[in-house]
Amino acid sequence: MPKIDLATIPLTNRTGYPPPYAEAVAGRWYRRLAPAAGLTRMGASHVVLQPGAWSSQRHWHREADELVIVLQGEAVLVEDANPETGGETLLRAGEIAAFPRGVHNGHHLQNRCEAECVFVVVSAGADTADSGAYSDIDMLFGPAGFTRKNGSPFE
What kind and span of H or E run contains 44? Predict the structure, then answer.
């Protein structure tokens, strides 16, 4: 059946970020929807941000498009590309943000409220060949994992 039962998909707050970059996402809990639904050409996750949590470190992708749909609560979208607002835009339930591949617009969501923020993030593109950078920290990502911007590995 096409309906996805969230209760059957494991909830995790696992991250691959090396210390200390993992701390900001400790309150991010997610379920990977695409594998559970048999989707192979896109990624999709149901995400719950606890108060104070970030969705990720601020990043952009070379090969993957991203679409974020806020379902409940609100979060602050922090990005490079919105100088009129100081790079911050409030997203509320029912609002959507999109990030085309290859655009160097580092972005993430921060939950600055007292309540949870729930959203779905969808990605599409060459996921296995994707790479990109983090705007605020000395880190790149790619198929082999994380490195510093000079190419050296994390210990």
Answer: strand 42-49
How confident is the model over 104-128, as a mean pLDDT? 94
pTM: 0.93
Q: How far apart are the first and last CA of the chain?
A: 45
As to burial, measured by CB atoms within 10 angstroms (0-12 exposed, 13-18 middle, 19+ buried), residue 4 is: middle
Burial of 24 (0-12, 13-18, 19+ CB in 10 A): buried
How far is CA 69 from its chain centroid?
12
Task: Kindly report, residue by residue over 117-141, the tens digit of the pLDDT.
Answer: 999 999 998 778 899 999 999 999 9
Comparing 1-5, 13-17, 87-91, which segment has the lowest mean pLDDT?
Answer: 1-5
Per the document, the length of the chain is: 155
Whole-angstrom distance, CA of residue 101 vs CA of residue 103: 6
Mean pLDDT of 20-38: 96
| The dihedral formed by the CA atoms of 46, 102, 106 and 115, expressed in degrees to the nearest 10 | -20
* Distance (Å, whole) CA 111 – CA 90: 10
